[in-house]
Amino acid sequence: MKKNAILALALLIAGGISAQDGANSKGKVFGEIFEKGTEAQKDSLVKAIVADAKITEKEEDLQLYYNFLNYRKQNADADAVEKRALKLHPKGKMARSREISKYYDLKDLKDKEKQYNAILKKFPISKFPEDGIVYDYVTAAFARDLMKEGKKEQSLKLLDNMQEKFWRAQGYIPIAEELLKQGDTTTALPLIQKSIDDALGFINSNDQSNKAKFAGVGYPGYVQTYAAVLLAKGKYKEALTYLEDARKIVPERAVEFAPGYAKALQMTGRELEAFNQYTSLYKTGQFGFHDVLKKLYQSLNKGSLTGFEGFIDQQKAELNENIKNHLAQIIIDKETPSFKLRNLKGEVVDSKSLLGKVVVLDFWATWCGPCIRSFPGMQKAVTKFEKDPDVVFLFIDTWERDEDYEKKVNEFIDKNKYTFNVLFDDKKNDEEVAPKFGIKGIPAKFVIDKKGKTRFFLTGSSPYPDYILMELTQMIERAKKG
Prior knowledge:
The chain is an alpha+beta fold. The protein has helices at residues 5-15, 23-36, 39-53, 59-71, 75-88, 93-105, 109-122, 132-148, 152-158, 169-181, 185-205, 210-232, 236-249, 258-267, 271-282, 290-300, 308-330, 369-384, 405-416, 433-436, 465-481; strands spanning 334-335, 340-343, 348-350, 358-364, 391-397, 422-424, 444-448, 453-459.
């Protein structure tokens, strides 16, 4: 057979899909099979990948095979592919990735500096002009490490090496935040301003590329950070001008500016507008603004608080009604896949043993920012229902990237004092569970009724603890009723 004949035949057998040329086409085919195929099809494809990895010399194919074998947690096979790739292409992209990964394992700053310089020397940027973002990641990381160690001038100079204008704010902003922690607003503000200018450049260009969209997504956050510094320095009018301009530039995202905008209005004497802004925030479940609302209410009513509690109750009632209407549109009646997974204590939890209870599943990972941001709200819900024998919460840790994931999960739960029942979706007690639930992104939350039927499925999560509690409470009570 020709070199790729084994792989081509396997693709046809595994997925019934015509073989295509090129790593990108293969990647698309692989993705479809791993996402939608049967276990037999997936196993067939893995065998084909392992076989072809022993004979192909194309680095892009070896990289693709390595990625998918890692995804399947077939570490021995993935290591064999990497070893062969490094031998065939000692100065290629996989060798570079290996050296970059070493950087993140280092603790001492001098070792990190030595490794960073070694990467640039052995794999000069000029040889990989299309990979600017790869170098930006490690450059941004080194700049942050330098800044944390007080090497300000070296850190700032390093930022000049950033290659991709659409992404360089990801290097600027963490440095600016570190400077703000140190009280150095003079140095921080220009970095934030550069980030704003970069984003505006893409927004105003009408560029529809993914790079432009990425740059634009960060714009509200950069403005909020800049305005927060101005507010902290007492420059209320200047902050208000920035925020009002931003609301005009991206009106569809005005809600993201609301906290800073409300404070700027308040501090410049525009109390009624500030009150309305804070009220809109309260209606999203951000109950932390209760005290400032109370203060503004009293001021607007000539010192009287008469009717304030009724006003607050009305806002909560409206929020509850909005949640109720939203849930009415997404309620489902679907069979729930069964599973057997280990918890932190090593005990196996069988989903079949949970029939007769309302079960809340939360799929998450330690690297997932939105998952972590939802946890204070999830803890509120766990605490509220901890004495209810009919309700069970299970936090299913999935898609972890590090070999020592169990240790990381344990340390994370202990550090934050979460009282979560965590299960490991690591194929040790069951086939991978997340795909059985059709999950394509995390956090993913499911509410299952007493008969084992899935009643609610949510991807993503609100970052507001009180909203999460209210939403979950309604879902659980509905699931109890079946």
